Amino acid sequence: MKINNEQRRTRTEHKQNTNRTRTEHEQNTNRTRTEHEQNLRHVLWVLRHKKIELLNTYLCLRTSSLSNITKGPALLRCVLSLDHTNEVHSLSDPSSKSTPLPHTI
Prior knowledge:
two-stranded antiparallel ribbon
């Protein structure tokens, strides 16, 4: 069977289109994977910081409950005393120092 020029050109164009489509698909897949990884890293970062805030609140409440302070004002003081250095400050005892949180995250 003899292949004429038109058939040859059609086959070549088809191969080129197939390769182009494959390349575009791979690029889209890689871009999507990268975006998902970035989103996942951001979610994990947020969760770590929320965990730190919850641990800070827990430690502050535990410290406050030892001081026999009512829970409502103690919770408010704990939330207001949270900072972003992984430390909790007990406002119930002015002489208390900051208590660093263990790095278990």
